[in-house]
Give the backbone structure.
Amino acid sequence: MEKREQLYEGKAKKVFLTDDPDLLIVSYKDDATAFDGQKKGTIVGKGAINNRMTNHIFRLLEKEGVPTHLVEELNDRETLVKKVEIVPLEVIIRNFSAGSFAKKLGMEEGIKLACPTLEFSYKNDDLHDPFINSYYALALNLATQEEIDAITKYAFTVNDVMREYFAGLGIELIDFKIEFGRYHGQIILADEVSPDTCRLWDKETHEKLDKDRFRRDLGNVEDAYQEVFRRLGIQ
Ligand code: TMP
């Protein structure tokens, strides 16, 4: 597969065209941002960890019936993926209170919710990714009802699969954010699943093993990413 010119550079990844119009190459960076890009830094080794972790989880999800954009891991940092049109919704699932949910509802972090929640944010940094519901998504033509139904179904499956998988690694899946794309009329899982996009706490110690260490200046950021990667047991 021939790598062609850069199509786009995001906060954590670069995207390149290929000689196949249906396929792109994503290249994961060590760059980290928080608070809509206001806070900037580097997490050494993050790009390779997030690339390999995402692909590992996406393979697992494919087996459980969730279609993904994954085609082939090319090297430590780069993966060949299907070229999708991203649905501009951040889909967030929560199993425990944390982050903006805890703040908004005046709760401590780490309280188990009676059932998982799903919420949408409109993907727009200038507006700080505002919280919206499915009626807003329809009214703004961000997605159709059929697409929202598929996204909702897949998102809860992703949660079931990942929660069980991480539990086996001694990790509590607190919450996560995923994104979907349109590929030849079908909704498929795109973007990434990594410590950048999930809250992962050690089940025993409740130590944070995710990007909150960077967002909140908790220290040992690289160690946390490496610990998650080590537990995945990928060779
Ligand atoms: P929140 O509690 O800040 O709303 O975050 C919920 C989850 O979404 C958490 O696992 C972190 C993830 N997330 C992203 O992946 N990107 C973002 O821009 C934000 C704000 C959160």
User: Anything to note?
Assistant: The longest strand covers residues 171-183. DSSP finds six helices and 14 strands in the chain.
